[in-house]
Amino acid sequence: MAAFTSYVSSAGQPSYSFPQQQSAPSHASRAPIQHSFYPYTDNGGSTLGISGDNFTIIAGDTRSTSGYNINTRYEPKLFRIGGEGSEHKGSKIVLSVVGFAADGHALKERLDTVVKMYRYQHGKEMSVNACAQRLSHILYNKRFFPYYVQAILGGVDEEGRGALYSYDPVGSYEREFCRAAGAGASLIMPFLDNQVNLKNQYEPAAPQGLEKPQLVPQPLQRAATEELVRDAFTSAVERHIEVGDGLQMMIITKDGIEEVFSPLKMD
Amino acid sequence: MNHLPQAWGRPRDDIYGAYDHSYLPQTHANTHPTTHTQSPVVTGTSVLGLKFKDGVVLAADNLASYGSLARFTDVKRLKPFNRKAVVGFGGDVSDMQYLDRLLNSLDVQENYSGAATTEEDDGEAPAATADGEGGEDKHKAILDAKNLHTYLSKVLYKRRSDFNPLWNAILVAGLTTPPPPAPSTSTSSPKDTTTSKPTGPAPSRKPIPYLAYADLLGTTYSSPTLATGFGAHLAVPIMRRAVPDEAAAAKLSREEAVEIVKKCMKVLFYRDARSMNEYSLCVIDGKGVDLQENIKLEGESWAFAEGIKGYGTQTV
Amino acid sequence: MFRNNYDNDSVTFSPQGRIFQVEYAQEAVKQGSVVVGIVSKTHAVLAALKRNAEELSSYQKKIIPIDTHYGIALAGLASDARVLSNFMKQQSLASRLTYDRPIPLSEITSRIGDRAQTNTQHYGKRPYGVGLLIAGVDQKGPHLFEFQPSGVTQEMVACGIGARSQMARTYLERNLDEFEGSSREELIKHALRALKDSLAQDKELTIENTSLGVAGVDENFKMYEGQEIANWLETTFERPEGGEGEGMEVDS
Q: Which family does it belong to (chain B) (predicted)?
């Protein structure tokens, strides 16, 4: 009976069959050495996505870095998902990944395989929102050893509107109108807030006072949006060493994906 | 309830007794946890790669260092694979040897499966096709440099994901056949009954130079100029000055490419303390793999060292 | 009466050295409707006759595109074919992932061959009740492979399996010399004529009951059904008598 009532052992603490706290240094000496291998790296670069009412643009620079080194001036961060074969013929979904490039590639291939199997099993293309949710699950399933990437997924939804989804490394996701990710995100995102969502922009004709009416965001036109993307990147290139070399843009409409490449400063 | 969340709901030793570990599988009980490579031991330094008009040049010296000790001076770090591709290894030498064995077994497996060769291949070469590339057709079904790079990067990425990395940075060089220009499902309708004369087997697309990098993290990239290790700092700027982009590489001759790489090997020997003056150099082009494994550094002279007055503010 | 004691499982030989379960599985292939495959220097073609179980039901699936470069045609148990095609799809994607190359047809064929063989050597397992024609193009050009429930696989120039396929094979044997040099259109016509030869007397090839699969050098595998094949059927069969020589002669 005494055993049941004594919730506290003689040491003043109940004991369990697992280590209660960090052992003293004397223990550490015979324990194996700590892992010194770090499985991640940052390959720099920046991506951004903007959705309009009948298109989505995803863009990314093509520089890959390790520290101060430029690995290569052309390593795309934009990937077509689904479609036929390795050329992704007929695909209408684009994934962009920035962060650790090897994880990015692995993630892209996982998602691409899923979308291709979906088509094989169901005989139709996967919708963007279904693909977006599946991507979230793929990321979340590896939350204890995450894919170290910021992903942006773009396409056109079943109503024909531009669809854009952004993710954190463990799968939280949200549908948005615009999002910048990667090294230059902190430079580009405020610009997009102002130019796409018209934050801090007020009716110019309104009288001065406390109640200044905010400008309401209007659906974007494609040509203007492409210019916006170009401006965002040329500015980021000026101020961030990991962004540059080339700008790859993919414009997704109901007719498919159009790819545009333009050079950026290589300094 | 106490302040240890991991204790909630678990049996207390003062009531149930300590957990009897002898019931666990023996591998888990009272043995040390499995350990993996934490750092490379015997290492090779830089590997250089440079694309030119119709192929790729690859170079690496023959030294394997044990820390700062120049331990082995005849280690060949460029490994040819099935007459079509070459892999250059930097980093841990034992992991290189493991990968080399892996590639050999892959090559054997490919040759047994029958996918690689046909019966004609064993006999005389098939008659040259109209465009005179009959010799090339002979081995076209075997794994090329691009296939090999994809495979190796998957091996490296898998091992890093298991926290058991293969401590290498590698370059894969060779030729690859680009995918068809316009991905096509023939759009010719049934109406289109033009009886086109059957053409030869494959309207052979010309293989193009291929050069790509992969490392212990599974990171991969491709560029007309590549280098691992110290070469990324010292050799890449020299190579990029000559070959800033793919267009420049497409104009470069074989002789020029070899000369640039040799110059880089010299700079590396002068400036990289883990390098030596004997190296392997390999040229891969349409004709095949030309590997020289015992090139001596030409025109070695330390005269320039006389003029070095130190670094920083020292002037006399 | 004369009960066969050696056909209870697929691991027991009869005293004559036969494995009856495997032979029965091969009978299942002969129950399936006919499929035909031919290769030329540049193309591989599959043609299949689809059956509908009853007037009100839809037609069965006979050709399955697996990867962009190849597809299969089946005769026998469709459900067994689906298991195999799922496996082939997975293997094909795996090849693209690990090597970035389309799987060679000889490779995928030997992989399903190995799988089928294990079924004939393990107690409690059943051989696949389906025969396949695997047709497509890989790095070495166009190919046609035949797969049998026994695990036997062979590369063919032309082949027909399924009910009454002997008639189709006769046609193929008679025209064997022409296949290699045939154009895409000619090859399709040959396949349709061979298929037609295997039909019962009162049957015709229609857009409802015929499937075609075509792959070529630099041309992805594509399946053609319904209205897409109307023209081919027309140009192959609706010619005035004697207009298209050799095809009609062997019709009798």
A: Belongs to the peptidase T1B family.
Neighbours of A145 (CB within 10 A): 11
Q: Any chain A CB within 8 A of the CB of C95? A: no
- Supply the DSSP symbol for B198: P
ipTM score assigned to the predicted complex = 0.86
Class of domain A46-202+213-263: alpha beta
Q: Is residue A166 within 8 Å of A63, Cβ to Cβ?
A: no
A222-239 and A185-195 helices, crossing angle to 10°: 150
Share of residues in chain C with pLDDT > 90 (%): 87
Q: What is the CATH number of the domain that holds B271?
A: 3.60.20.10
Does the pLDDT value for residue A72 go beyond 50? Answer: yes
Q: Does C67 touch chain A (CB under 8 A)?
A: yes
Comparing A15-24, B6-15, B92-101, which segment has the lowest mean pLDDT?
A: A15-24
Domain annotation covers residue B190: no
Burial class from Cβ neighbours inside 10 Å (0-12, 13-18, 19+) for residue A24 reads: exposed
Domain positions in chain A are 46-202+213-263
State the Cα–Cα distance between residues A102 and B21, nearest whole angstrom: 39
Residue B72 sits in which domain range? 40-112+143-179+201-297
Nearest to A84 among C89, C100, C220 (CB): C220
Domain-located, residue B175: yes
Tell me if B311 is assigned to some domain.
Answer: no
Nearest residue to B248 via CA among B281, B209, B287, B215: B209
Residue C226 DSSP symbol:
G
Q: Is the dihedral of CA C182, C185, C186, C187 positive or negative?
A: positive
- Higher-confidence residue: A140 or A24? A140
Give 3-state DSSP helix, strand, coil % of chain A, rounded to 5: 30, 25, 45
Percentage of residues in chain B having pLDDT higher than 90: 62
Task: Write out pLDDT tens, residues C142-175.
Answer: 999 999 999 999 999 999 999 999 999 999 999 9
Q: Do B199 and C220 touch (CB under 8 A)?
A: no
Mean pLDDT of A90-107: 98
Residues of A in contact with C96 (CB under 8 A): 86
Tell me the shortest Cα–Cα distance from B2 to chain A, in angstroms. 9
- Work out how many CB contacts closer than 8 A connect A with B: 98
**Catalytic positions of B:** 37
**Into how many domains does chain B fold?**
1
**Integer Cα distance of C108 and C111 in angstroms:** 5
What pLDDT is stored for residue C52 in this prediction? Answer: 86
Query: Which strands form C219-225's sheet, in the order they lie side by side?
Result: C158-161, C35-39, C43-49, C210-216, C219-225
